[in-house]
Write a structure and sequence with these properties.
Dimeric_a/b-barrel, YCII-related domain-containing protein, Alpha-Beta Plaits, single chain, alpha+beta
Length: about 90
């Protein structure tokens, strides 16, 4: 599994793109790729937990959603995660 950490600002571009992005995440959640996702309580960032085999797949996941390159959205880091409770 992987943790994608985002930094967010309140740009109009990000807010306009958010609905489509959330729809994409919901579809990937239905198929089991996105395990959890959501903004931090202060809306300064967000976390997305994805269940993908390797970093190449995570990069493909990010490349497939234009939200990740929208003004106001920065991918801060992508880290592999090894949870023992799911």
């Amino acid at each position: 599994m992987w943790i994608v950490e985002l930094s967010l600002t309140g740009t109009p571009e990000r807010l306009a793109a958010r609905g489509d992005h959330r729809g994409r995440l919901a579809a990937r959640h239905e198929e089991g790729t996105v395990r959890m996702a959501g903004p931090l309580a202060d809306d300064s960032g967000a976390l997305i937990i994805v269940d993908l085999p390797d970093r190449r797949d995570v990069d493909g996941f990010l490349d497939a959603d234009p939200y990740f390159t929208t003004e106001g959205v920065t991918v801060v880091q992508v880290r592999e995660w090894a949870p023992f409770l799911v």
